[in-house]
């Protein structure tokens, strides 16, 4: 424990300065008429958008919308809308293959440790803690080393300089990378290739047209196969406009009032985070209501943990899942939003089994009252619900923290039902009398100590999600094999 403190000590904050963008030390200006370069391939989805290939140059015509810009290809001269997160200003730092932006240290490690990266693979990211600096992360066998890249005003007043070692300053980050590629010069290893970037990111919405117009035509959806069955209806894998893979949830008629659902959906639309399933669109003009979301290829975390693949996951991976879930919940916490049904069945797993995201946030609130009460039957998630929520209906972010503790027990037992062998009624009565779930078999003690904190009778004494995220990060850094402090002095 305590490594977050030791990490703090490592930092030497400089005077805050204007944030220059490295390569040509020019701040990135997002102005129309500028030339951008495509970072990924993009296939056209509607008549109004523009397809392009990675590295293609695009002239930006209109940036008035934040997620979709109007652009003209410098190659085909065609015009159309493009997703703004697929491009970067030409010659800017964001256009460099080695620049990963503001990603956490832990994500840099995960990316670099992917098998496709070789020894010496590297990336530059914006420092999490020091606004003006960058970090260089390098793969060294099965570990990742991090070096602070400082940015300061040049002594001769000619702009900013970048350096790892004060004795060797560079006027651009590109020059710094070139130098340490040709010569390790004190680094533990010379740089080889930029870390592979993962697949293209999610677009913020399905298309430019659906950004302000959520309600999509149900005929634009093609149902491909059933992914699963929830209490309120089926979930299908499908395609929007014949091209974009999506998940489509159909709600059994009568489950929700379409007006209530739409109001909630408006709110959910604003809640966008990497660790929360993206809500893309809805069909509410007739029943069944459809909810169209991001597709997660490996389905629910509960099923995944119980599968042969899931059962082989080591504790480091399980800790990483807990960090990802706590990160998503900590975002909800910061937006004063409550999940109300946090459980492994409501967490979904991505294609490679490395990414998990929280689903179904907000839906519990719009389920019709009688349906909700009907849930007090066998299917009500009583074992996940905090006592004050059960007794007085007091759902808060702190009742979500309680549910997170139960979710941790599901993770560490590879999907066992919580309180094994006990009925819902028995659990409810015993919890009131201060009974808590005993430590599951093979659960690390430090996990259990965290779980107990989430089950404090006094909701205010339960940790915040932000604190829970740090606790699990500390476990990973203390127990993990591949974390090294960047204390090297060059
Ligand atoms: P509840 O009805 O209590 O919320 P649930 O979460 O299992 O239970 P659904 O959200 O309807 O019910 O999901 C049913 C199943 O469909 C999930 O267990 C999962 O396997 C699959 N599923 C749901 N959403 C997606 C998605 N976005 N991508 C891939 N699979 C999904």
Automatic annotation (TrEMBL):
This protein's record includes keyword ATP-binding: yes
Start and end residues of each stretch annotated as Disordered: 1-26
SUPFAM superfamilies recorded: Protein kinase-like (PK-like), SH2 domain, SH3-domain
Molecular function GO labels: ATP binding; non-membrane spanning protein tyrosine kinase activity
Any GO BP annotation: actin cytoskeleton organization
Residues annotated as binding ATP: 249
Keywords for the protein's UniProt record, in alphabetical order: ATP-binding, Kinase, Nucleotide-binding, SH2 domain, SH3 domain, Transferase, Tyrosine-protein kinase
Domain SH2 per the UniProt entry, residue ranges: 98-195
Protein name in UniProt: Tyrosine-protein kinase
Organism of derivation: Daphnia galeata
């Amino acid at each position: 424990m305590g490594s977050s403190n030791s990490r703090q000590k490592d930092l030497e904050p400089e005077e805050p300065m204007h944030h220059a963008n490295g390569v040509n030390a020019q701040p990135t200006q997002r102005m129309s008429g500028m030339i951008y370069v495509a970072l990924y391939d993009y296939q056209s989805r509607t008549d109004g958008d523009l397809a392009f290939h990675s590295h293609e140059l695009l002239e930006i015509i209109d940036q008035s919308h934040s997620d979709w810009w109007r652009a003209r290809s410098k190659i085909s001269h065609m015009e159309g809308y493009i997703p703004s997160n697929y491009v970067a200003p030409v010659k800017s730092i964001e256009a460099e293959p080695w620049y990963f932006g503001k990603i956490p240290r832990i994500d840099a490690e995960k990316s670099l440790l992917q098998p496709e990266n070789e020894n010496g693979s590297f990336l530059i990211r914006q420092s999490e803690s020091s606004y003006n600096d960058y970090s260089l992360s390098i793969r060294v066998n099965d570990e990742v080393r991090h070096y602070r890249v400082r940015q300061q005003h040049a002594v001769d007043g000619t702009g900013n300089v970048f350096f790892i070692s004060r004795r060797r300053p560079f006027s651009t980050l590109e020059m710094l990378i070139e130098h340490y590629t040709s010569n390790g010069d004190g680094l533990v290893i010379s740089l080889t290739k930029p870390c592979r970037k993962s697949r293209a990111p999610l677009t913020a919405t399905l298309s430019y047209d659906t950004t302000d117009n959520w309600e999509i035509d149900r005929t634009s959806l093609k149902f491909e196969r059933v992914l699963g069955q929830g209490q309120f209806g089926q979930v299908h894998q499908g395609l929007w406009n014949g091209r974009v893979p999506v998940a489509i949830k159909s709600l059994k008629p009568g489950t929700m009032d379409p007006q209530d659902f739409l109001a909630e959906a408006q709110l959910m639309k604003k809640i966008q985070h990497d660790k929360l399933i993206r809500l893309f669109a809805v069909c509410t003009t007739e029943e069944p209501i459809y909810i169209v979301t991001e597709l997660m290829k490996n389905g629910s975390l509960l099923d995944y943990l119980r599968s042969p693949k899931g059962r082989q996951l080591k504790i480091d991976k399980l800790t990483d899942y807990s960090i990802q879930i706590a990160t998503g919940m900590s975002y909800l916490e910061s937006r004063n939003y409550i999940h109300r049904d946090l459980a492994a069945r409501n967490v979904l797993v991505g294609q490679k089994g490395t990414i998990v995201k929280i689903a179904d946030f907000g839906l519990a609130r719009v389920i019709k009252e009688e349906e909700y009460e009907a849930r007090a039957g066998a299917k009500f998630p009583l074992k996940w619900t905090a006592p004050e929520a059960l007794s007085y209906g007091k759902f808060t972010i702190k009742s979500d923290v309680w549910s997170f503790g139960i979710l941790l027990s599901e993770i560490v037992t590879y999907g066992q039902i919580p309180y094994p062998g006990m009925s819902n009624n028995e659990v409810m009565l015993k919890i009131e009398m201060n009974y808590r779930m005993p430590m599951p078999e093979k659960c690390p003690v430090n996990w259990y100590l965290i779980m107990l904190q989430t089950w404090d009778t006094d909701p205010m004494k339960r940790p915040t999600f932000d604190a829970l995220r740090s606790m699990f990060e500390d476990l990973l850094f203390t127990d993990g094999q591949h974390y090294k402090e960047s204390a090297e002095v060059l």
